[in-house]
């Protein structure tokens, strides 16, 4: 009869040198990691595209309004509908937005002249707002301020144990865009509440 210690050494040596199925074991160990990385890349790419489209919607609305001499609430609603179509491939959640005309007064305050909101409450005419430096320099300068808010709900709601809401939940993208009027000193809204 063989020595039990020699038998253990023999099997240990065989186990160390045997490579049958090693690739399958390595694959099985790495597959979950690769799947998580793959889904994270897809999630990041999709969220980045949604964020870029939300920014594009805000810039498009500011651009269209700033090219007009005057607008109406119906026209503004149409602009927001187009902005919503830009976001349509990603979810049925509506794009929220607001367009506001801000003008500098004689006391160098930036005042809301009119505001229209699509699911966002419009700013109250006559209220003071903060505008980035350099946009409004002298009294009667005005700017169109467009905002979009998009609540992005990932199609990959993955919850990893130990990481609460990892790649799940709602991410809010809030984008703003400022443009000076192109054709007139100040864009008017014919049927919006004004200052």
Q: Ends: how far apart?
A: 104 Å
N-to-C order of helices and strands: HHEHEEEEE
What's the main sheet like? 4 strands, antiparallel
Order of strands across the widest beta sheet? 3-2-4-5
Give the C-alpha Rg: 29 Å
- Proportion in helices: 25-40%
What is the 3D shape? rod-shaped
Note the total helix count.
3
Strand tally: 6
Beta-strand content estimate: 15-25%
Mean pLDDT: 84
Structural class determined from secondary elements: alpha+beta
Low-confidence stretches: none
Q: Can you put this structure into words, describing what you see?
A:
With 195 residues, the chain is of the alpha+beta class. The protein is 38% helix and 23% strand. It is built from three helices and six strands, in the order ααβαβββββ. It has helices at residues 4-17, 22-66, 73-87; strands spanning 70-71, 96-104, 110-118, 142-153, 170-179, 188-189. The protein has a four-stranded antiparallel β-sheet with strand order 3-2-4-5, covered by helices on one side. The chain has a two-stranded parallel sheet with strand order 1-6. Helix 2 (22-66) packs antiparallel against helix 3 (73-87). The protein is rod-shaped.
Feature tags:
single chain, 195 residues, alpha+beta, two-stranded parallel sheet, 3 helices, 38% helix, 23% strand
What's this, in brief?
The chain has helices at about 5-15, 20-65, 75-85, and strands at about 70, 95-105, 110-120, 140-155, 170-180, 190.
Topology (elements, then pairings):
Layout: H1 4-17, H2 22-66, E1 70-71, H3 73-87, E2 96-104, E3 110-118, E4 142-153, E5 170-179, E6 188-189
């Amino acid at each position: 009869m063989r020595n039990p210690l020699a038998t253990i050494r023999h099997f240990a040596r065989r186990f160390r040198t045997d490579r049958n199925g090693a690739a399958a074991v390595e694959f099985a160990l790495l597959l979950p990691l690769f799947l998580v990385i793959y889904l994270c890349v897809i999630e990041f790419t999709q969220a980045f595209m949604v964020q870029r489209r939300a920014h594009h919607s805000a810039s498009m609305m500011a651009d269209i309004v700033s090219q007009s001499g005057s607008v109406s609430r119906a026209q503004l609603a149409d602009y927001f509908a187009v902005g919503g179509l830009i976001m349509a491939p990603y979810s049925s959640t509506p794009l929220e937005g607001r367009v506001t005309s801000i003008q500098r007064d004689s006391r160098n305050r930036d005042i809301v002249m009119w505001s229209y909101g699509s699911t966002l409450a419009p700013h109250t005419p006559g209220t003071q707002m903060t505008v980035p430096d350099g946009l409004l320099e002298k009294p009667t300068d005005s700017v169109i301020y467009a905002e979009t808010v998009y609540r992005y709900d990932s199609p990959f709601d993955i919850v990893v144990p130990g990481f609460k809401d990892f790649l799940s939940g709602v991410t809010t993208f809030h984008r703003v865009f400022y443009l000076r009027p192109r054709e007139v000193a100040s864009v008017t809204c014919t049927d919006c509440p004004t200052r």
